[in-house]
Amino acid sequence: MTDFNQPLGGNTMPRFGGPATMMRLPTQDSAAGLDACFVGVPMDIGTSNRPGTRLGPRQIRDESRMLRPYNMATGAAPFDSLQVADIGDVPINTFDLKKSVQIIEDHYHRILTHDVIPLTLGGDHTLSWPILKAIKAKHGPVALIHVDAHADTNEAMFGEEIAHGCPFRRAHEDGCLIDDRVFQIGLRGTGYAPADFNWGRDKGWKVIPAESCWHKSLTPLMTQIRQMIGDTPVYLTFDIDSLDPAYAPGTGTAEIGGLTIQQGMEIVRGCAGLNVVGADLVEVSPPYDLAGNTAVAGAGLLFEMLCVLPGVQRHDAQPRSDILF
Questions:
Q1: Any idea what DSSP says for residue 160?
Q2: How far apart are the C-alpha atoms of 221 and 223, rounded to whole Å?
Q3: Of the four, 39, 195, 254, 303, which is 20 to 30 A from 65 by CA?
Q4: How far apart are CA 176 and CA 146, in angstroms?
């Protein structure tokens, strides 16, 4: 019988003590023997506005200390069925974005020599492009669920083709994506041109702007997306600025009118049953997160991502009301 790693419990060591790892899990130097792993990419040199996401992975780990091993709402029990560890951070070159992108890709190629699903703590959104290139090398082109306030399909920023506003145009150009199975959820705000969000639409991507999500559950949307993706390998990328700044102020490019925390959770939980081969949570900027709420949201969403991975055991879900109201 497999002895699965477990998060360090709050009755064994106070929540404010113990290792500063994701969920206070054990660490190891590689992904060998793991079914899923948490990886940090402490980078903000691709950022165009407020910096600070280089500190995101460390703060997300710190705020994950309150997370417990069982998901009471969905019944998911990832630590009863998957071997999971925190394998540390990618050693980026903080003075050279182009070198850092190559370092990230090479690092994920090594991770993916193992049969493991990487869950990434960002870091700015530039990192999704090199990860998707490594994912493609293992799984081929993938479906994409992209949750974000911004399309991130710029041709260039200040003349540079590598930046946090460009990763999905680069991923498309590199053949990483299955165009009729790309979904962008939560786009909103102002643009440089009236057709800014149509670049992906012209490629066959499905764009679900934030306004179409207001005042409603996104569970039906995710049912449709699951039907359209089927058993195709899928990558989930979640920019924390997809959430309204009321919930996630600690980010570099905040936009009003965003998703609620509950909608973000519905999106991630709606990925259960999909063939998720990787995921990331990006753009948490602790210097603008004075109460820690953004990092708390990021940590919780990463746990929800772990809970929807293939092979996760599920117990009877617990959400019910014992009174009528």
A1: B
A2: 5
A3: 254
A4: 14
Report CA dihedral (269, 278, 113, 46) to the nearest 10 degrees.
Answer: -150
| Mean pLDDT for the stretch of residues 27-49 | 97
Residue whose token pair is 């071997």:
83
| Distant-in-sequence, close-in-space partners of 18: CB < 8 Å, separation ≥ 6 | 8, 24, 65
In the chain, domain spans: 34-86+97-314
Residue 303 token pair: 């746990």
Q: How distant, in Å, are the alpha carbons of 27, 38, 40, 244, 257 from that of 211?
A: 41, 32, 32, 12, 8
Token digits for 12? 């064994």
| Rounded Cα gap, residues 222 and 5, in angstroms | 31
Q: Examine the pLDDT at 320 and tell me if it is beyond 80.
A: no
Whole-prediction pTM? 0.96
Tell me how far apart the alpha carbons of residues 275 and 303 are, in angstroms, rounded to a whole number. 17
* Nearest Cα to Cα of residue 318 among 7, 76, 65, 6: 76
The Cα 85–Cα 296 span in angstroms is 19
